[in-house]
Design goal:
368 residues; alpha+beta; Glycosyltransferase; five-stranded antiparallel β-sheet
Length: 368
Amino acid sequence: MQPESKILSAEDILSWAQVEQSAAGIAAMQEPDGAVPWTIGEHTDVWNHIESAMAMLVGGQVEAAERAYDWAFSMQRDNGSWPMKIVAGEIEDHSGETNMSAYLAVGVWHHWLIRRDDAFVRRAWPFVRRGLDWVVGMQLPFGGIAWSQEWADGVPAKINAEALLAGSSSIYQSLRAGVALADLLGDPQPEWELAGGRLGHALRKHRDLFLDKSEFSMDWYYPILGGAVRGEAAYALLAERWDTFVEPGLGIRCVSNNPWVTGAETCELVMALDAIGDRPRALQLMADMQHLRADGGKYWTGYVFPDDVNWPVEHTTYTAAAVILAADALSLTSAGASIMRGTTLAADFAEIGLECGCRSADGVSRIS
C-alpha cells in the first residue's frame, strides 16, 4: 500500500519556468566545444554529459543540446568507447567505461521522442551502434557487463572483468533504447537482444555476482531505474534498504555510512519510484530535495546534515539534469517524459540463463 502525500502535483514543487531556468543554468556551464563538465573547471564524462543534453532539450535549450551531441560524436573512439575523463578538451583518463559508452543510445532515443528528427537519428546511429557493439563484447559469462577497459600506448589494454550492478542496470536500459532505434531504422541487432536477455536475467536473479558496492544507494535502486526489476519485486527491493538511505525531509544518502544526502541520487530514486507507479513517495522525495536549489536554478551536489552545510561547495550540471528529468517524468510535460518508465523502449528481453545453471526460456546455450 502506497503512503498518502499532501503534494498534489509536480507543479506544486517546481514550476516549468523553474525547470527552464535550471536548463539554462546547465547551458551556461557548457564549454565552447560543446562539452558539459560536472561543474566549471571539472571533467566531462559522456554519461553525465548525455544526461545534461537530455535535460537541456527538455528545458528548451535546443541549440546547446545539439552542440552537446555533436561533441559526443566527435569524441568517440574507433572501438566504440569514450575516454572516461576529459578536462577542457584534454583526456585525463583514457580508460573506457561500458556504462558511459552505452548511454548515448538512451539520449538519442530521448531526442527522437521529443524532436522526431529523422536526420539526427540517422547521423547518430553509427555512434550508437559502435558504442553498444563494444559494450556487448564486454559481457561476462554470468551476464553482467565488465565495467571498464584500460588503455596503454594509445590502444585498448586490460579489461577490468568485474561487473558493477548500477552500471549494468543502466546498460540494460541502453540496450532497450538501442534496439528501439534499430527497429526504427530497420537495422536489426539480434546480438543486443541476446545480450539484453542474459543481462536482465543476471540483474534479477544473480545480483550477488556483481561487485559488492552495497554501501552506495545507486546499487540499491538502479535495477529498478534501468528497467530490469519491476512490479512486486521492485517494491520488495526498495523496502530492503529504504530506512538505510532515505532521510525524510532531505532526500537520500549517496553512501549508507555517510550523513550526506545528494540531489542526483534522490532524483534518480524519484524516477525509479515513478516508473513503478509509486507517485506519492516520488513526489515527496522530489519536494524534500529542493533545499539544494540555489540562485539561478542551479543545484548544490549535496548536503551534510549534521553540519548543516552544502558539500562539496559546487553546483553540478548532473544534479540539475537529474532534477529536470525527474520533474518531466512527474509532470509528463515533454514527449520524452516516459524515458525512465520504459514504455517507449523496445520490449523487455526474454531472459536467458547461460553459465549460471538456470534454465533459459528459449534454450539458447551460447552467444558467439
